Fold this sequence. Notes:
This protein has helices spanning 39-62, 70-82, 89-99, 103-119, 124-144, 171-178, 195-202, 214-217, 239-260, 286-291, 316-329, 363-369, 371-385, 400-420, 437-441, 443-446, 457-465, 483-499, 516-522, 534-542, 546-557, 562-574; strands spanning 3-6, 8-11, 14-22, 162-166, 184-187, 207-209, 223-227, 232-235, 276-281, 298-301, 334-337, 390-394, 429-434, 452-455, 502-505, 526-529. With 578 residues, it is α/β, with parallel strands linked by helices. The protein has 3 domains: 3-24 and 154-257, Glucose Oxidase, domain 1, CATH 3.50.30; 36-144, Orthogonal Bundle (Enzyme I, Chain A, domain 2); 266-544, TIM Barrel (Alpha-Beta Barrel), CATH 3.20.20. Strand 10, helix 11 (316-329) and strand 11 form a beta-alpha-beta unit. Helix 4 packs antiparallel against helix 5 (124-144). The longest helix has 24 residues, at 39-62.
Amino acid sequence: MSLWLSAIGVSRGVAIGAVHRIYGADLDIPEYAIDAGQVEQEIERFDTAIDDARRQLQTIGAQIPRNAPSEIAAFIQTHLLMMEDVTLTEAVASRIRVSQCNAEWALKQQSESLVDVFDQMDDNYLRTRRDDVIHVTARIQRVLLKQERALDTGDTPDGPPPVIVADELTPADIILLHQQGVAAFVTEHGGPLSHSAILARSLRIPAVVGMHEARRLLVDGETVIVDGEAGHVLAGPDDGALEFYQHRQKRDERYQRMLSVLRDEPAVSGDGQRITMLANVELPEDAVDAQDVGVEGIGLYRTEFLYMNREDSPSEEEQLAAYRQVLASVDGPVTIRTLDLGADKTVGRPAKMATNPALGLRAIRLCLKEPAMFRIQLRALLRASGEGKLRIMLPMISTIQEMRQARHLIAEAKIELDKEGLAYDPAIAIGAMIEVPAAALAAPTLAKYCDFFSLGTNDLIQYTLAIDRIDDEINYLYDPLHPAVLQLIRMTIDAGRAAGISVSMCGEMASDNRYTPLLLGLGLTEFSMHPASLLEVKRAVMSANIAHLSQRTAALLALTDANAYREGLEALTRELRH
């Protein structure tokens, strides 16, 4: 008899495989006393386990796919830094000395103590740090207990590939398991914008999250079908279901081959409107992959990778080399976002724990507070602009004053380069990333100080709806179709059009073809996304009648009945999918 389960589909595709249940942080931890003469030896065993766990993470970090979002590398880096934190290392050693207990038990006690501290902090962002403690200590525990996270399903090479069913999986787990040929992931916790969900999409692995009790309901070795788009898991499928989903798999393969034909086609709508297709990239090498799908330029080039995994700030020459590399790899314009790190990730000085990092000293705020560091990046960007079409984008702008201060620093950097006889583009475009509601509301005025806007919808939605988008207890509230979100997007696009400046979108919303009709109807003409999504969005653009969509979108946003509004939007987002 078949069992049909439903949860949240976070990574599209269909997988057919055999269940393999994994138990992550819920390890069986032994407790035993040790002699006084064994204390230092036990501490040494703990230190060795940390070193081994650190090497594991470093190896995994080196294997992160080049097209994976920068958040994944930051996640790995956060765990590496935690393994060096004295509240973990020295505190566990102290517990071993005082209690004369084994390292596993001392680590368990310290982990629970740290988790209790975070639990008492009523802040959504600090909950993610609570989870980090659990993930890091579980990794160290597995080293101490000699329990590796390798697959041992007993399957023959010709047998069904494993479908991992777990409480939750970290990005490091997913990278490791992907290398072992897993077909899909099903987790009991998590949300569509968790680090793991984003990575699963990058790797094109079907995934369903938030399926509570999955490990209790599914049995090791039984055949399951995972539909990562609909969020369905079918256990014990009959011949009819197997045949249906095998046909789906073949259809998806044909669809991907069909999309590849669009690579060199311009993104022109059915009624003749030209849409610009840009890519988001993380590393200079990613620009080469973006060219393979026919991008017209880079709409978001993140520079955080230059500052990660190091104690010092990158030099001007080091940054210049990276910017030159990406400019040389792409035919079109390249929009480079200035440093978007928070105070908790600052290099070159001790990090200060922020009560709420998302609302604290980060992005443009941090750069303006540390102008010496910012000036080095601005000089490198300006020098690179002399060798290609480069635009500078400033993240998390929330006030006109921030824009004016940043422009003043750029002007000062130009004067320095003039004195040194170094070339740059004197007319380089300077733009703002619209990801704070205040910036969208002030867009008509802000446009006077900008040469372009770029909508960062991930944070814009999060800040507008006052939710933590990676908290699986409230991620159901993360709604790109909320009337307030759409009004802010429309206000930004309208303000850009009135000021004669371009407006692009570089958030996850731009890469989801379910929203393409709506965004076209709102007047968006530049889409920037993960290269893996570009051809699907291009196909949606080429199938659209934008004049018709504009009329329908305007009528929908004027509705006051909540049910009619939602039904109309859902119909519009489905329009180009059939």
